[in-house]
Fold each of these.
Amino acid sequence: MGASRELWPDEHTVFNILYDKFLFWSIIVGLFTFAWLLIAILRYREGVDPNVKLEEIKVGTFPKERHNFDLELAWFVGPTILVVWVTVLAFGSMNIVWGEVAKLQNDDDSFIVEANGLQWYWDFYYQDALTWEDMDTGHDVTWNITTGLTINPGEGAATAAVTYGASTANLDLANNTTLDVLFNELIFQHVDILDADGNIVHRWQHIPVEHKMSGDLIIPCDTNVLFNIYSMNPAREANFDATSTYQGVQHAFWLQEWGMKEDAVPGLEGGTWMYVQPNEAGTFPIRCAEYCGKEHSLMKGQVEVVAKEGMTCDADFGVYFEHEELRE
Ligand SMILES: [Cu+2]
């Protein structure tokens, strides 16, 4: 999707599929209705059909001489079937949105992020660790618990900026492509490979559990990503005052790319949940969809979708595909 349509959901999301189906049936019904109306207007004018005696039609009296039971039955049964069908489609989408969350909460493969709405920004706390790397750049970073950091610089790489916990190091890749620091899953680790002009040509990153990001967020593709959403979560706010009448305000965490949003409710124990299924790398907007005060319009960020280390993003990922007919 281009930038001008960045608020329009990805074409494979459940609501986009639902929108297309509703639009399809609306167009069919519209064409049929207006075509019939046009035919009726043209055919039943005075003088066109000698069988129609206009002077016999009286206001408030049903013209029983033209009564057609089959036709009447058809325009009751036909629309009823259509309304039932679109209702089933709509319920199917609700089942995907609400029914799947409970299953995914208990699925070890789910990737969980806590989103905490504050005035006026989002704090994110990772509940699962994420090690990711840019795809298809020709450069490669390996960092493990036995041999430490190894960089395959590929073509055009000049230096590497390395962060591990609170420490940093710079490698001149012409002389040195390794670092004798073992991978540690408990700390934040980051490698940028840069070209001679200082442009970043490759990124590698390890985000540990309980890592905090503010405003912007990074999530993996080809994974069910669950958000546990709070407003001013007492467990996260050191100066939270349980006796204060102010317990935060309503926000709504909104990811337009997947057509999903969910309320952040002050004081709601356990928070609320929603999930998305990213299947392509890219950067997409984060918005607040519930008016929450003076700087509501500035309560925004970006979510970057990346590939887990050693993987690529498969455009076919997602139950949106399995549920394309939106039945169940
Ligand atoms: Cu808001």
Amino acid sequence: MEHLFRNWDKLKDRVRGSYLFLFLDYDGTLSPIVSTPDKAVIPLAARNLLKEISQNSNCKIAIISGRSLADIRNRVGIKEIVYSGNHGLELKGPKIKYNQTVSADYKKVLSKIRAELELKLKDIDGAIIEDKGLALAVHFRLAGKKNSDLIKAVFREVVLIPSVAKKIKIRCGKKVLEAGLPIEWDKGKIVLWLLSRQKFIMKDKNVTAIYIGDDTTDEDAFRALKKEGITVFVGGNKPSSAQYYLNNSKEVYDFLGRILNNANKA
Ligand SMILES: [Mg+2]
């Protein structure tokens, strides 16, 4: 993998003159990684960049997050952006909306898991249970090594039977485990769906997709866009299916600035 900026001269010509569809993860990409999920915010200058890019007639932004749709929309709050929550299961943006419906049985399974997790994790420091509506997440960024192992063991024990019975599916992210819908849908699939829809709307115009993310769940999108997009991993030169890397959120903001500059010249 090469650093994105080392290839910028080559990429900016490819990007210029084409309609740009920018897909962005939130935590660890637009917001630096923080100790608890509620502290993750975007600096004002970066938010202004997002706003300007999303209002440019040659660009579109979609934020694809593991957070719930309501949470991610509140956090960013720019109306021109398309938001997708729960790794692609919820979607809302200008002229577009999609909500996954779930069965009463699934809700029952999830609330039973929640009750059991609350009981078994209540005395373990550093465990945070988050109800995301469509899924249940357990965060352990605040837990030490020993407690992290304990939290993971409790989670695995609690979800074992429903996951074997395919009533739920386990998803793993950075310092988070999730029990969610047992369907084959991920960030890669929602991105391909949004991209093909955009290409259909734009008819003959050339559309370039750029995906930036830092998590294991973003790897699905990196793989999905391998042939036709520009994929960027945030977090240094580590094993990833992305083509390029950036080191941190600061470099992501720098990149957003370059994108805007380039789009304004087009
Ligand atoms: Mg992330």
Amino acid sequence: MTCQRKFVVEPVFKNGFTLFRLTSLDNIEGLSYGIFGRSGGVSPKPYDSLNVAFSTGDDEKNIITNIELIRKELDFEFIASCNQVHGKKIVVIDKDFPLRPRKEGPIFLGDGDAIITNLPRIGLMIKTGDCQAVILVDPVGRVIANVHCGWRGNVQNIVGEVVRTMKTDFSSNPENIIAAISPSIGPCCAEFIYYREIFPEAFWHFRINENHFNLWEITLSQLIEAGLSPKNISISGWCTRCHPEYFFSYRREKRSGRMATVVGWRG
Ligand SMILES: [Zn+2]
């Protein structure tokens, strides 16, 4: 299976940030998004510099400053994020959701690995260091989702669950949904020596050699199975582990920051 829209996007350097733009998202009216690399923040080594995850060992003040820089860059009123636990809990922010903004820092949504909303002005943030952030946009129903999908997310088919929730809660038609997969660990580096124990057999044909897997293709196949059109799915094509100049990578460094992928509707 190959994606029609797969290509390696060149980074854009803006206001100190390294941003990865995907044309499929650039053409959606009213959408603001940022797939950020590691540059443009205030955190010192080894979190240099746009670290957005509190659990890393970095100073909390730096993380709050970094998230505020992102919020301003994308022009949102709030940034909302979850405590990501490699599960498949989905947080749905609709008009009945009790949003509790804090004096500083992002709105905390509790445990979860995916966020869906149809409300404007809120940037949904997923934090990654090798895992995929998967942006899903229904431009017709004006619904967006941001999904944290590592290999455990693939095993649980979290992207399929999110598409189903967009259908049931917001009447989204999967054929209209546009998807983008962020920089994340590539087939060059996604080695799973014990794959027989952790992956279902259905994944085994996504191996590119003895024990390296193409996780991008796994997510792609799950999105297509959920009803998305291949032409609506973009993969950034960047491996986070191979490019320390642009990305944090947990596999490469262990002690490192996490990058932000943020999406939302403008007011
Ligand atoms: Zn690699």
